[in-house]
Amino acid sequence: MTGGADKTEAPRLPTLVRLCLFYAAIFLSSGVSLPYIGTYLRSRGMSGGEIGLILAVPLLLKPFTGASLAVWADGFTLRRTPMVLLLAGAGLGYAGLLAAPNLWWFILAWFVGQTLLSTVSPLIDIITLRRARTEGFNYGIPRGTGSSAFIAANLAMGSILTFAAPTIIAIWITSACFIAALAATLLVPPERVHAEGAKPDRSERWKGLSELLRNRTFVLAVVTAGLIQGAHAFYYGFSAILWRKQGISEPMIGVLWGVGVAAEVGFMWFLEPLRRRWGPERFLILGASAAVLRWTLYAFEPPLWALFPLQMLHALTFAASFLASLRLIEKLAPASAASPAQAINSALSSGFTLGIATLASGPLFDHLGPYGYLATAFMALLGLGGALWLSRRSRHQIV
């Protein structure tokens, strides 16, 4: 095994099992923070605009923080070491939500927690993608297991909120990060950042990052995926609040979120052969097309029965475009720049574009209510244009 074993590794557990358990650990936090943080902040007296600002700050800064943290992470010997530190720091950041006395403290606490936690995913993806190739398993299995944990946390919190105060949301998120830090120590394979053992100095790592940004096809792929993923912003921040206004109960809101993520899991577990036949460019087109349809229909407050099939489109709007972006970035970036490449992809797809959309979502919610979804439908339409352009460039390059 790359890098050898050490005392903290669980030698009797196969790599696939350990990765599945670790993905589950890190998704215990996002399974509650993503659907319910708006509910928590609303309970602390924040308006829609303030909630949008709080959620947007770490996303807007992610192109800078994500790249910097990725370069920092590449300075360690083992990939899991920075993961442990990031998760512990995220737990401390989220703990600040419990003591935050005003808007600015909420912004700071959420910025620290969300910035550090979101950096872990591209780092573990690098290990998982490589091990999937060398050990012959489907990347979607551990990633889908994480999404299954997201569903479990989501449903559990929906039930808990029927009798507990929203403070439990912040307590859960904080505790889950510390659990994940322990899981990183015990479960993540001790893989070396640099297989040859020598660590390039910081200037060389930054040089590799700048070379990536000069690759036009790479930038187009990242921006396109960012537009499609960023179109989820209004849904992430305000779907629970809007559904509650429609008279849908908290447990049923958890079920709706669970249906969407369950469709995502099924897509990742069982449609890997289809992805290989179609290629990532077609998957981006598929995801963008579904996003235009989904967010347009959500603007008109469909009834509960219609929300279930619409939620299943999450398999396309999120999973298809997410898997496509991972494979495209892996294909376009050299192995020596794997960490910065995936960090840039994450910084845009779940960072800057999502942050801009989230910042706009607060005022859209305050003034337009559900019609705010139309803005993100337009964003998805731009992503569809980028996906079509990327597909054409790919065909020309093959020819």
Explain what you see.
This protein has 399 residues and is an all-alpha fold. The protein has 16 helices and no strands. The protein has helices at 15-43, 48-73, 80-99, 103-135, 140-160, 167-187, 202-213, 216-230, 233-245, 250-270, 272-278, 280-298, 304-312, 314-332, 338-368, 373-398. The radius of gyration is 20 Å and the shape is globular.
Annotate the secondary structure layout:
Elements: H1 15-43, H2 48-73, H3 80-99, H4 103-135, H5 140-160, H6 167-187, H7 202-213, H8 216-230, H9 233-245, H10 250-270, H11 272-278, H12 280-298, H13 304-312, H14 314-332, H15 338-368, H16 373-398
Helix pairs in contact: 1-4, 1-5, 1-6, 1-9, 2-4, 2-15, 3-4, 3-6, 4-15, 5-10, 8-14, 8-15, 8-16, 9-15, 10-13, 10-14, 12-14, 12-16, 14-15
Features:
disordered N terminus, globular, 399 residues, mainly alpha, single chain, 81% helix
Tell me how many strands there are: 0
Helical segment count? 16
Distance between the termini: 39 Å
Segments where pLDDT lies below 50 for 5+ residues?
1-11
Oligomerization status of the protein chains: single chain
State which percent range the strand residues make up. under 5%
Shape: globular
**H/E element order:** HHHHHHHHHHHHHHHH
Query: Can you summarize the main beta sheet?
Result: none
Q: Can you give the helix content as a percent range?
A: over 70%
Return the average pLDDT rounded to an integer: 83
Q: How much is the radius of gyration in Å?
A: 20 Å
The helix-and-strand class reads mainly alpha
